[in-house]
Amino acid sequence: MKLFVDTGDVEEVRKAAEWGVLDGVTTNPTLIAKGGKGFKETVLKICELVPGGAISAEVIATDYDTMLKEALEVSSWHPQVVVKVPLIEPGVRLVKTLSDKGIRTNVTLVFTVSQALMAAKAGATYISNFVGRVDDLSTDGMTAVANTVAMVDTYGFQSEVLVASVRHPLHVVQAIEAGAHVATMPFKIMEMMFKHPLTDSGLTRFLDDWNKAGLTIG
Ligand code: E4P
Q1: Per-domain residue ranges for the chain?
Q2: Are the C-beta atoms of 152 and 129 separated by less than 8 Å?
Q3: N or C end of the chain: smaller count of CB under 10 Å?
Q4: Contacts of 165 (CB under 8 A, 6+ apart)
Q5: To test the ligand 1 pocket, which listed residue (23, 28, 160, 172) has its Cβ within 8 A of the most ligand atoms?
Q6: Active site positions, annotated
Q7: Ligand 1 site-directed mutation target among 6, 43, 84, 127, most atoms within 8 Å of CB
Q8: CA–CA distance from 181 to each of 19, 22, 55, 191 (Å)?
Q9: Distance, CA of 206 to chain centre
């Protein structure tokens, strides 16, 4: 499974990249606004921090012609840029156009398997299925992920299912169980994935025993 960090904060990207397990970064207009820097500047810095990673940059317009203009602009910034497109009618049309040109896309704001089918048929590289926002409405967001993974497998689509709107490490575990290809998450959730109290207490005991015995390496 690929791990992406979901942020517009370059310092968070820098720290996550240092761990050596980061496959990409997703941004959205809210996260870029929160990052407090320019859109292009932020995206280019992230590309530099995650060499070879897939870096999603979202179009803002909602009409096809302007979306296409924006998509060609952001994809010209760097070969690692993946154009993020909302799942609306002109968005699906745009994904087909970009896919025909060999430009990678990440279709966002996907909540149902029927929406995911439209994205897959248009040639989406990634289908971002939001989970947390559905769970917030007392409904199981992961069901659509599992159904979308099954749909992609059954019909042999090339799209990767990306679990987005992740709220806690259990969502990542459930994404793995559902067979999702990618999970994107806030930096703090990625940090939490390292944690277990038995790891901490176990390490303390190992080191105490070692030091009490006066041992050294080499
Ligand atoms: C995905 O690419 C989105 O940026 C993100 O996962 C949205 O998450 P949220 O529901 O926490 O805003």
Answers
A1: 2-212
A2: no
A3: C
A4: 130, 131, 132, 133, 134, 141
A5: 28
A6: 84
A7: 6
A8: 20, 14, 16, 20
A9: 36
The size of the chain, in residues, is 218
Q: Per-residue pLDDT tens for 17-61?
A: 999 999 999 999 999 999 999 999 999 999 999 999 999 999 999
Say how many Å lie between the CA of residue 76 and the centre of ligand 1. Answer: 24
Distance, CA 165 to ligand 1 centroid (Å)? Answer: 4
CA of 164 to the centre of ligand 1 (A): 5
Task: Specify the ligand 1 atom closest to the Cα of 164.
Answer: 6
pLDDT tens digits for 159-187?
A: 999 999 999 999 999 999 999 999 999 99
Between the CA of 100 and the centroid of ligand 1 the distance, in Å, is 27
Mean pLDDT for the stretch of residues 149-167: 98
What is the per-residue pLDDT across 93-109, written as a single tens digit (0 to 9) for each?
999 999 999 999 999 99
Residue located via tokens 């159904």: 147
CA-proximal residue: ligand 1, atom 4 (nearest): 28
Structure tokens at 60: 């803002």
**Closest by alpha carbon to 172, among 199, 196, 145, 154?**
145
